[in-house]
Design brief:
CATH topology of the largest domain in chain A: Beta Polymerase, domain 2
CATH architecture of the largest domain in chain A: 2-Layer Sandwich
Order of helices and strands of chain A: EEEHHEEEEHHHHHH
CATH superfamily of the largest domain in chain A: CorA soluble domain-like
Oligomer: homopentamer
Shape of chain A: rod-shaped
Number of helices of chain A: 8
Mean pLDDT of chain A: 87
Helix content of chain A: 40-55%
CATH class of the largest domain in chain A: Alpha Beta
Radius of gyration of chain A: 35 Å
Chain lengths: 352, 352, 352, 352, 352
């Protein structure tokens, strides 16, 4: 993950309720409303934000998807029409929030983190999605027009599954479910990565492996940081404290189970990554040990022999051995015997 | 354990309630019903799923064992006959669930993980078993026809123990008890393994030992991941919140005690495995230390001697010592004295 | 952070309620009162402390900012006028308190830690701010006249935001919000620092890096120590147990969310710092390994060759090879062959 | 502790309530009943188990001590006479239970682990003691006839302390107190051991020390595993939920305090043992460092000197220095100067 | 801290309520009673224990300080006069208790650990102080006559602070406050120590540093072991569950805050000490690395040169170079070039 100043997550020195978009300036801006019930369906590209007021009709469920948070004015207008608290609007625009859920009298406000995995940089990208669940509507606010919610749109359009027959709470569940799905996609990627790392550590460890493990661990730390608050949100939702969530309750329980399982997997990966580093270190220690053995064996064999050769290279006038007929071959034999003896000794000591 | 993409545990991008089998395609498909009460017993191979409806009779306890989850249609039909919630059917077919328990009005739904140990690969294999406890029936759903439940079948057939005299809740207990038993079998295997590893680390440590410890730890991580949710399920069951569990309550408490003990053992093994790695590392450090000592002693003794021999090998015209009658033996004596002196010095320093 | 005896945080051997200022003697002493409501605003430099009594008027909100705790007498007088408990006054003067909140009948007493980051020494400086929230007034007590609260003063002066329209609880919230903001500023600094450290560890690690990591960790330990009690205080405030906090409740919840996020970030940084040290150590081990390889390769190649040269440097009378016409080039060839052979061998062993 | 398959703790594949003794076959079998009240005392060696029925008389307290669990029939008979649940009997016979307490209508069932320390093997031996507290009787079931309960027997016999004047709950307390006492005896042994290890690590560390630390840690792991459930049992007992425990309640609270203290000590020892291993490792690293210094100093001094000697050992025809009158002493002086210079250099670098 | 058998903390094999003093036999024995109310004060050296009965008068507060627990008879007599439970008396005499609080009908019994720091041995000494708070009296029982409570005595004597105007609960608070104060004195000492260790690790680490860190950690472990139960006691006291504690409640809350802060500091020191050991180890690794570099550079430069000198020291008859006019200077130049080339190479590799 790229860490930048902005991600720390709080605007500094600004009165609460001040609407400031904390992300990067972008081009995209689009409001799409999907209005449906069991019998009908309509999709509207909203041009004038005042149109939104018309979706309040409780006989149909409306999903209003707002892309492009740099248009602070639009968010503010929607807030006024739907009577959202200024702090809610502020949180929607501040894209560095912690995932959370807040209950208001007529609506529930939810902030979630959408994770995607960049295959090239091996980094996890985080995007914030804010949701407002009302009586008969769901708002989704996000920065970029990613296609993550397309399957839901399709299900509504084609009347697939039960979605058209059910209320706004079921729609909310479907949207959150898609987000949790993406956590699983990333867990799959991470699962493949750790298998690769495990292999690398055992067969061909290098300093790059350590850095890859470090990156992997950083990714896990980021996953955890997103997954735990997500779990809290879903725990809240599955308790059924709000009158806005009725028939979808059991589905939220289901998603809650999935977030627990995701967290379990993240923790498992962490344990494994720590274990990998231990193996790496023991591997290096082992190798150093092996190298030292080679050096020591070699030095132990040759250094004494060099001394013998050195002695008979001295220029003393009176060195009787030098005159001997078989002095030279005898010294060669002595050298050989000592050399072989050393090898035998080291073999016994299991150093060779 | 083999980690594969599927085991991450969630179908991505599919509306809830969609019935999809997430395991491998298999051949086996078999539904066996065992119908009994204190006075009688009958075992039926179910051909037509509609027959199942006849087992609803509350005067006998019926255990319907469904093997082969690839037959989604069969599971769906059973679901209809016995009025099971679509999410329950989905969970039965998704074999990568976390163990859990869910209470419905007329039945309890339980997902458990069955563990078996592959003696060859030293890996733990995980299979999912789903159970539904009703008024007078228990369903078990599983992928493969393993013989784990045979002892129960036999006990019913031969009227061994109290099982025939009791209700469906007692049958459920017996089935879960068998599953927990298999956790103990694996703990035994792991216990033997860690004893072996302990021995290896102390007597003959190698890089393979580290890998074996790593594998052992991975197995423990998997055990933990299965055992904790199992514990939660049994904790729930032993609280007696459901009207479906009456006389078997005390037995569930008993199994609950066993799961706690199993988790205790897993945690103990983890502590031990970590400790083993520490010993291994200190062992390697020690050995490197020993090798360095040998090298240093040797070099310290012979390098100065080699210098002496080198000096008297120089070809200066005027080197009075070279002319001395006893120059050569004197040098030899000097060499010996220095060499022996060094040895004495190192003995004193306790390096030899 | 500078650790000094005083920071341990408790006066020893003094009866409770004894008013002693535990900080350094300073020059600054200033009491500023800001009195406002929706329609008006006035700022008074308080000369005579008895004037303070006049601010009790509930129709306006008054913020009385006391700078300079060495004037124990002034604090005592204020305490008498506003009927503060002796222990409260003692806590205000003892600048080494843990952050805390205490509920009294007509007021709430809060102690917080203000953090600032010294860019030169890379140390976090801690200053204590005590606050008293009454019906229509807020007291702030602090040692030094830093400009941290200036934005609030400006907002009141210029009627920016909702602050003038709201009560004393909202003012308290604004003050605490500014303090929490400064935690985020420090987190930004620390975020930049850890990015730098990460870079250093990978590209150019040295013993200084380890010391920098140690300093970074010490800073985190200090952050944690301040952030956790801060969180407790805000958790209390956002529960709404007091009649003094009414409309600002939701704003305290907001600040509470921010403190949780700040703690999350601190914990993330700790995990990363630990991971960095592991990388550093593996890096050093790796380098030692590389160096040993170079030494061993070199010694293994040259020491045997030196022996050969030594043998033919011996002065035996009868060494037939010395007389050979091509003895010298043959020895050179042997030396070359052995040398090259060794290099090939090491290449194969992947040591070169 | 000897780890063996049996200790994993569960009989596999057996219907609940099946009475199987899971320990080793032994010879000892003995039932001793002690019947007392304030005015009288009698001790009976029970021959025929049916005699036990006579002890039900509520005017006296009876302690029935059953040694030898291989006599499954005897245990079963007692169970029938005193109306014990089949699961209780099963737990009594399965000597690999986790410590636990279970409340029944007319009795409380307790399983505890008795620890003894084998001075020779430095291992902790574990024996299971099961207890049943009724209205006016206490049963103790155990495998071997150890003398641990003798002090209690003596106190009853000699009317020492208040034991004769009190009820069965007080007797139970006295028995458990003795068991907890033995935990303290082991803690004393472990305390002595860690003092010894601490000494060894600092003065004379070796690979054996590491193994001793490992064994010590294994013992602690076993202690913990027994002590935590013991604590839970005593926590239960000291809550006073049962009508069977009345006047002894305060005594159970006392024992509960002791188990907490025991656990504290175990955790303290664990921290110390981990710390010892760190010291050991740093000690080894330090030593390797020292050895490397010696080698490097030596090599740095002598290798260059050897080169000088080697140069003047070359056989070139035209080497003017060789002809010089004072060439040889000059070279010797150069050698000495370089040698001494090196030593001075290393002294400055604080390597010597 | 000196660990001795006795400190494990439990008398083994003795019936509860048996009064045995578990400390060392000492000479000192003294009972001092201080009797006061707002209007008067009197201090009595109690000779005959029966005098104690006279202090029961509820119109004055009495503090009875008993020094010298070896006089079991005296403690027993006091117990009888003031109607203390036998277990309380036992706990007073057993000086190896865990800190705890126990509520009785007319009194509260408190055991605390008094810590003092021995400047010479750098060890923490622990002394037990037992307290009994009644309606209008406070008992303190301790082994040795230390001067820790002198400030309180003085405050009463000189009517300093509010102590004379308040009840027995306020006196108890003052006594406990003094004990907590001494924790802070030790924390100051430890704070100085860790600053020293930090310095040592960075500037001049040695094996002694590791031992000092170990001792420091042992001291922290002891601090924790005393501080956590102390915190529990104060948490209890500040809850106000007893009718004996009324007006002093807020003061107990204050002391409770201080114990939390003390524990925070202990935990901070632990984190720092662990971090120090990491720095030490990385320091040693770094040094070994540096030493290896020196050795390797030296060997790499000189060993090949020695081979060259060795080659021209061979005694072959036909070695044309030896006859060359400029053979010798050419070889010297070759040696120089290779040597300098190596140095340049190592400089580039940043080894020098």
């Amino acid at each position: 993950m790229k860490r930048s100043k902005k991600e720390i997550g709080k605007k500094v020195g600004v009165p609460p309720g001040t609407l400031i978009y904390t992300g990067d300036k972008r081009e995209e801006f689009e409001i799409t409303a999907i209005d449906y019930n069991a019998s009908g369906y309509r999709k509207i590209k909203v041009k004038d934000i005042d149109e939104c007021a018309s979706f309040k009709d409780p006989s149909t469920v409306t999903w209003i998807d707002v892309v492009g948070l740099h248009r602070v004015d639009a968010v503010e207008k929607i807030g006024k029409i739907y009577n959202l608290h200024p702090l809610v609007l502020e949180d929607i625009l501040n894209i560095h929030q912690r995932s959370k859920i807040e209950y208001f009298e007529d609506y529930i406000f939810i902030v979630l983190k959408m994770l995607t995995y960049d295959d090239k940089s091996h980094e996890i990208e985080i995007e914030q999605v804010s949701m407002v669940l009302g009586d008969s509507f769901v708002f989704t606010f996000r920065e970029r027009k990613l296609d993550i919610f397309d399957p839901i749109r399709e299900r509504i359009e084609n009347d697939k599954g039960a979605i058209r027959k059910r209320g706004a709470d079921y729609l909310l569940h479907a949207l959150i479910d898609i987000i949790v799905d993406h956590y699983y996609i990333i867990l799959e990627k991470l699962g493949e990565e750790i298998e690769g790392l495990e292999n690398e550590v055992i067969t061909n460890p290098s300093q790059d492996t350590v850095q890859a493990i470090h990156k992997f661990k950083s990714n896990l730390i980021n996953m955890r940081r997103s997954a735990w608050p997500l779990r809290e949100v879903l725990s809240q939702l599955s308790k059924g404290d709000s009158h806005l969530i009725t028939e979808a309750l059991i589905y939220f329980r289901d998603v809650y189970d999935h977030t627990i399982q995701a967290i379990d997997t993240v923790e498992m990966f962490r344990d494994m990554a720590s274990s990998l580093l231990d193996i790496y270190l023991s591997n290096i220690s082992n190798k150093t040990n092996e190298i030292m053995k080679v050096l020591t064996i070699l030095a132990t064999i040759f250094i004494p022999l060099t001394l013998i050769a050195g002695i008979y290279g001295m220029n003393f006038k009176y060195m009787p051995e030098l005159e001997w007929r078989y002095g030279y071959p005898m010294v060669l034999i002595v050298i050989l015997v000592i050399g072989i003896g050393m090898v035998v000794y080291f073999k016994r000591k299991k150093w060779m």
